[in-house]
Amino acid sequence: MSETPLLDTVNLPADLRQLERQDLVQLASELRAFLIESVAQTGGHLSSNLGTIELTIALHYVFDTPHDRLVWDVGHQTYAHKILTGRRAGMARLRMLDGISGFPRRVESEYDTFGVGHSSTSISAALGMAVAARDKGEGRRIVAIIGDGAMSAGLAFEALNNAGVVDANLLVILNDNDMSISPPVGALNKYLARLFSGRTFNAARRAGEKVLSVMPSMLEFAKRAEEHVKGMIVPGTLFEEFGFNYIGPINGHDLDSLIPTLENLKQLDGPQFLHITTCKGQGYKLAEADPILYHGVSKFDAVGGIQTGKASKLTYTQVFGDWLCDMAAEDSRLIGITPAMREGSGLVRFAQEFPERYHDVGIAEQHALTFAAGLACEGMRPVVAIYSTFLQRAYDQLIHDIALQNLPVMLAIDRSGLVGADGATHNGAFDLTYLTCIPNMLVMTPSDENECRRMFTTAFRHEGPSAVRYPRGSGPGVPLDTALDGLPIGKGEIRRRIGNNSGNNNQRVALLAFGSMLTPVLAAAEELDATVANMRFVKPLDRELVRALAADHQLLVSIEENALIGGAGAEIARCLEELAPNTSLLRLGLPDRFIDHGDSATLLAQLGLDASGIVSSVNKALGNNS
Q1: DSSP 3-state helix, strand, coil percentages of the chain (rounded to 5)?
Q2: 562: domain CATH number?
Q3: What is the side-by-side strand order in the sheet with 531-534?
């Protein structure tokens, strides 16, 4: 590891505030070097964290944290924050089982004031804290740090709209790391940022308003003149209209500009808005050149960089991306939609080959679904590629705008089940529960790559809302059909039959597997000599298959990588209650708690959802000691 003599002296923000201003540039350099080498050894989010190092230092230097509150948006850009708030040693086990989270967590540190993982929540949460501080008479400052991508979500604008009319001290910092709003404009801009944020300017403005208030026409003229001057220099009109005092944009890597501006803003009352521009991957040339590749990384060589190569097995995400292009070539009605997850959801090739039919709507999941509903109303066939955890944000739109109208919108739900290192905020633990209870929904769970491809076709051709939920990573690696064939709706299959010499008929077991659980279930069945059903459909459930299995098995076992409450097993229970009420049912799935970050295979084993765990649970249910 690189030598970090100055960083070694900083264990908490109080230590940071003892440093001289001129030492902070060196601190940033050491922190950046440590971060690159640390993430290279653990994996994690890199580009975004390299872009917020100076901002993080400036915030903890100027504000009295944790008394003053820093509320981060999304949270994957808080590694520097974690290092400066007593968790430097914990970076060695970042996002690992029993290690520190890749996102802020209130239970992890008093400096993590709000738990995050999804975007666009910071302004709302910070406003709540600011109002609480005001009402309790506490002199604390509240700062929300939000990225330009997160500003595309409606929640952020709802919060801005409310904050502008609430008498609370709130500073919103917009970290514009793609220069998507406006680039910095040099030395003049730095000077004006300090001027507009200073007490003298604001005191003069308030005094002028008081004097001119007796002459409404002159007051209006003065306001228009000020807006005109500021409008020529800064793109702040929108935020000023929300009731904020807009400052910026300024260079978010220039501590000599950041710190004085923050010090000025700290003294001001009411809603303040600071716009900074930063570079993703700042200070690491490889990440600067390809910030998307270095956004979320596995372990890599910090000197040589990420070595890209073709994986031995296709991931489910790649299967979806290839299917999407194949189906789009066959059916011109197909429209691909993603809420800012082109790479993650496998839409890169589709965006290149069918640019006029590709829509990235930004971090706006609610809009994505209602936009798809509008397309479906006019005869198009929208396919929404979305992570399970992010679909939760558009639940009302799914019910009210799509399912209620029975519109043919297809959901390709990636990252279902446990996702590993990103942990509780990103696990797709609830989709079978929240999808299955919605009328008109078709819900499918593929057990391998080829079945997944066929389910995509089934969903796309279905005359109503449909969902295919599939896990992160690769499946068993089966060959793919080239044809675009579907599956009979609501029909599962028997994948293994119990042996003829199974012994005691009272020990006959049928394992009903949903999706990714088929692989460990088949392994467990060999030891148990059990029947295995690949259920395929959660809704509509294959009731006839359930009835047949109940007729000649003593125990049915449902296995799913979803919350037990309300999931696929609950549908099996509901079916048995009607068709075979005397049949014993054991339901295996995710427990009623949030599952932390860690290696997915290890977590599943701990939860009893590997082959060994399934065997143990079945034997216990049968009263066997083996």
Answers
A1: 45, 15, 40
A2: 3.40.50.920
A3: 493-496, 531-534, 509-513, 555-563, 584-590
Rounded Cα distance between 163 and 272, Å, is 10
Q: What angle do CA 447, 450, 456 make, to 5 degrees?
A: 90
Place of tokens 């308030």: 206
The one-character DSSP state at 152 is: G
- List residues with catalytic annotation: 280, 365, 393
Radius of gyration of the chain, Cα coordinates, nearest whole angstrom: 28
- For residue 383, the cross-strand partners are 336, 410
Distance CA 213, CA 215 (A): 5
**In this predicted model, what pLDDT tens digit does every residue of 210-225 receive, in sequence order?**
554 555 555 555 555 4
Distance (Å, rounded) from C-alpha 369 to C-alpha 347?
A: 17
**What's the chain's length in residues?**
626
- Which residue segment(s) compose the domain that 111 sits in? 7-297
- Tens-place pLDDT, residues 491-542: 999 999 997 655 565 679 999 999 999 999 999 999 999 999 999 999 999 9
- The tokens of 459 are what? 């969903």
The CATH code of the domain that includes 148 is: 3.40.50.970
Residues in a beta bridge with 556: 510, 585
**How many independent structural domains does the chain possess?**
3
Residue 387 shares a structural domain with residue 505? no
**Residue 98 is encoded by which pair of tokens?**
């029993």
- CA 121, CA 150: separation in Å to the nearest integer? 9
Encoded amino acid at 279, one letter: C
End-to-end CA separation in angstroms for the chain: 50
Tell me whether residue 62 is exposed, middle or buried, using C-beta atoms within 10 angstroms of its C-beta: 0 to 12, 13 to 18, 19 or more: buried
E strands within 201-341?
245-251, 271-277, 296-297, 334-338
Among 473, 428, 429, 478, residue whose Cα is nearest residue 453: 478
